[in-house]
Here is the input.
Amino acid sequence: MKYAKVIIDISAEQVDRAFTYRIPDELSERIMPGVRVQVPFGNAKKAKTGFVIGLTDEAEFDESRIKPILSLLPKALDTNADLIGLAAFMAAEYGCTMNQALKAVLPVKKAVGKNRRRKDPVAEIQSLSGQETQAGQETGSADAPGAFSEGEGLSGKAGATTVPDEALNPDQAAACAAILRETERPTLLYGITGSGKTRVYIELIRHMQSLKKQTIVLIPEISLTYQTVRELTSHLGSRVAVMHSRLSQGEKYEQYMKAANGEIDVMVGPRSALFTPFAKLGLIVIDEEHERTYQSDTAPRYDTRAVAVRRAEMAGAYLVLGSATPSLESYQRAQNGEYALQTLMRRAHPGALMPTVYVEDMRRELEMGNRSIFSDRLKELTADRLERGEQIMLFLNRRGYAGFVSCRSCGTVIKCPHCDVSLTAHNNWYIDPRTGEREAALLSCHYCGYTQPMPRECPSCASRFIAPFGTGTQKLEQAVKKMYPKARVLRMDADSTATKGAYEEILSSFQKGKADILIGTQMIVKGHDFPNVTLVGIVAADMSLNTSEYDASERTFQLITQAAGRSGRGDRAGDVVIQTYDPGHYAIELAARADYLSFYEREMSYRKLMHYPPDTFLMRVRLRSEDEALVAEAAEFAADRAAQLFAADDAAVIGPCSEALYKINDNYRKILYIKHPSHDIIIKIRDTLEEVLMSRYGNRNVYTSFDIR
Ligand code: ADP
Ligand code: ZN
Ligand code: ZN
Here is the structure.
């Protein structure tokens, strides 16, 4: 590339203004997005510092007037400069504006309501889980690290509030030592459910503390904060902070400043915690690395794992990606040596075994006359556990009362007027003022939030035989309470956790044995460690199989394996019941055996055959508009352009077609797929399409987004 785009003044509002500079030959290899350079600017006598945000071969104006870059500056020492470099990388990689990228990496600007009294989220979790906290207690300087050998963890002199560490088992010790030898590449820590990955993270964090370095621990979603913080503070004391969207601006600011001022060593949180301004970042941990939530779905649409690789490189930090069900992408990287691989193949708690798994064919149950949500096996085992005073988790990946509402006379399904989806029934019961009868329910759209009362007759044929079908967590809760009236039941889903502090309340109650059964959506399957749970019921295992996505099997395998992995993690053996209409499906069969490696082989050969990621890069170009004809035209135009311009590169252009959910929020949505094995070419296609679409449809209310897998 001959020219570099450089931004100069990052304090100004308009950071998007980039200037073009010529790249001198001697620097051509080393100028890339994110580096700092010295450039001449306007009439200023002194050269200015700028950040390179992109490269190009085209001069925008008279070539002779373009000034050269003067020099390449060494890597910045200041943390903010590192983060700006990261933003530049994100802007180039994910096709967002520099402004959007900077907003993502420098999210917390100023103190808000400084004087108001606010709670410390970490102290709250400690007190909820029964840990004592002492103000000012420091456990930052752990003992100097020894060798990671069996029976000799790096138990620091944790203060009075921390629990003594169990010794690392030999596998954990070996993994720790090996991870610390990997100074050049990330490590994928593939450890089966309950193998003690968290304990490995804690040892690594202690090691970082002994070097006076800090750690970022990323979790896939807020619901895991309670569990993760509880575990970390119980071993490491109070030098831990959290960052997530449920915190108020003021609370965020306080947590952020604790990191900037070196008052803490560990930051825990969902993906945005990656941008914590630690001065000496030593380690980044991405727990449950396979989770989709690490992919940002708003601009900048970044992949947390890729950005973490970049940040770790910039800071010279270790990066560990942990999972019991690694994404195909990461496992493939481990196979070809891009990542190191460490494995933990046994459960860590002494005596804990993998659970016994039963796959129940719900078609058979129906044939036998069982029309309930529960298979006979699940009923029997539930009664048994209630009798023995052990805990149960029931997983169903649909919130609300029922799936959809339809008319039994004419088959009409009640749909959202703004979206192309059926409404979901919720049992927010109300009393009908005319009859005094209790009536179901409220219908709501999970895509736009629209709600309406349940109609009393079919809108198209006026039949009164209109009813909810399918099962959601609320209906499951109702059925469980009816069947086991004495059981204490908790429910955790997006509805029951809408208020602040709700996650912590539900999880700590269950943790303390105040409930027998925890019902929930995928929120309850990830990473939780409840030693008294000896039965997990996966109520409708195939729900995630029947989507049109190419990775539906992977997703199903992960959900079932993770859910099953919650059972029998303590002293007592556990059982798992998987209820399915498709017991022969390989995702279900292999998840039942917790056989990740066979699943990987099988799924990879399918992806290769079909040319799906990670075998190739797949870019989804999504277009939406309230104008149905216009969006169709724009999509055709984009497809034609892509095919024309990149015919020589052999890019495969598929579509356009309507999205599976064609209308959402009164917007019509088209999608176009472009596949190519080269990342560079995919990026080039994206940038070109963005430009041509922008110039033609930019001010006609057609919105475009791109994501690359
Ligand atoms: P994972 O995250 O791999 O699913 P966890 O880190 O939650 O597993 O550990 C599972 C359980 O094993 C936890 O209750 C933890 O306290 C326990 N555990 C972990 N390491 C050890 C060890 N070395 N000795 C005894 N128990 C352990
Ligand atoms: Zn009808
Ligand atoms: Zn809607």
About this structure: The longest strand covers residues 652-664. The chain is about 30% helix and 20% strand.
